[in-house]
Design a protein that fits this description.
4-stranded antiparallel β-sheet; Beta-lactam_class-A; beta-lactamase; Beta-lactam_cat; EC 3.5.2.6; Beta-lactam/transpept-like
Length: 375
Amino acid sequence: MRNSVFITLIISICVCSCTTPIDTVLTSEHPAIQKVMDSLDTYEVQILYTQIDTTSKGLVKFKDYAFQENQKTYFYPASTVKLPIALLASEYVTAHPELDLDTPYISKRDSVLHSVADDMRQIFAVSDNEAYNRLYDLLGRDAINTRLKALGLAPTRISHRLSTSNADAAERATIKFFPSYEGDVVTIENQTDGPIADVKAKHQQKGTGYFKDGNLMQTPFDFSKKNYFPLQAQHELMKRFFFEDQFDADERFAISYTDKIRIQKMMHTLPRKAKYDPETYYDSYGKFFLYGDSKDPIPEHIKIYNKVGYAYGTLTETAYVVDEKAGIHFLLSATILVNKNGIFNDDTYEYDTVGIPFLAQLGREIYALEKGRKQ
């Protein structure tokens, strides 16, 4: 009897020692969490959560937790790829003294004057695809992927534009910058990228079928040439951008302090504050954690610096969440696939009934955990 009690105690200790805060959160009785956990294999959930503390010497200390995160398991990143492209575009203008974020330019994609700053505003406020496509053409996938690898964010592979024909074309549109009103022009033209590099990831073939040109193809959908931005890379990018002092110089974005603060402000600015119609672009339009299942205004003291993505039934968000009033801040990244029928391109996905409610409640549960840590 004594030995069996001892063994039971040892087993209990082992189980408790393996339980993470994410595991605890996912035992929530909230229906949005339970629905996903009851059929976990269906949803391809991955979660990363970082607690952020400050030591007695004023140093930042990270404590990372993961749930089913595996950079070798593919998920479609959708618009989350706009985040690194925005930051690399800022690096581009930093590296060219004759340019800045507000320098006007014209892309051959259209005939309208733009600026990198305005493209960023559109990307973070309403996730504009054409703004991303212009910056993609400015940088090129070869330079994008080389730079992300140098920053330690491999195995990310950016391979194509979004929601446009010939999205993966190697040829890029000519761009002309106008640094002054005295006729100076900086032209970037005749740029061609190399072929799309392969990535080593599992589950790049998904589902049982997909629609193409109105016809149902009864074979898995092939994501092997699509953008690839693993959750770990997204999470690490956020760390580098908001806590650059924790990294070596070669792992930091080469962005001026002024531009960095400006970009961070864009990341948390709500659509209505960026002059978009609040009826169409409500506060949580691009913010799933905590508020995604509500159209109510987000409180002023809550700042969510983030980027979401949703396409092909996959919802993803990477965020730095700050409650200025309660002194709470944490990093959270998660992805979930909601495609019950296994058919892609049929616009039948459970975004509003399963995916967004799950991510919203996940954010609230993590926030409640953080609030408990502060008390």
